[in-house]
Write a structure and sequence with these properties.
Elements lengths: L2 E4 L1 H8 L6 H10 L4 E5 H10 L4 H16 L3 E4 L3 H13 L7 H13 L3 E3 L4 H4 L3 E2 L2
Parallel strand pairs: 1-2, 1-4, 2-3, 4-5
Length: 134
């Protein structure tokens, strides 16, 4: 089965009707119905944080997060000390990059899970050899 990692930018685009990537995210979600989507608690935390300033978007984000957590076709990997430390190691190893800690955790999670495709438009992931789908 195809496995694809979902970044916070994908969840934002999917949830926010005015996001410039919204239509593309909707189309992509339809093409991935047979794939297993993998994300992390850290990604969902970043997603919720990004949409916290607008009351309507905050509500939509909470609904989306609940939906992701309840969807059996989406694997949400839990946050742990191990994932934090793995991400921190990559973060420290790339002082020339502007990767966020969440991006580093996602990259290390993708490597550990053998996933090469990511639902995002963040070019940092191509710098680490991943294929961007959004």
């Amino acid at each position: 089965m195809r496995r694809v990692f979902a970044d916070s930018l994908y969840w934002i685009a999917l949830s926010h009707p005015r996001d410039q990537h919204h239509a593309a995210a909707l189309r992509l979600s339809l093409t991935l119905q047979q794939a297993e989507i993998v994300t992390t608690d850290e990604v969902l935390s970043e997603f919720l944080t990004a949409l916290r300033h607008n009351r309507q978007l905050r509500s939509l984000a909470a609904i989306q997060a609940d939906s992701v957590l309840a969807d059996p076709s989406i694997l949400v990997l839990p946050q742990s000390r191990q994932t934090f430390l793995a991400g921190l190691t990559l973060y420290k190893a790339r002082p020339d990059k502007e990767y966020s800690l969440t991006d580093c955790i996602s990259m290390e999670t993708m490597r550990a899970e053998g996933i090469s495709e990511i639902l995002t438009h963040d070019s940092h992931f191509t710098q680490e050899g991943f294929t961007i789908l959004l």
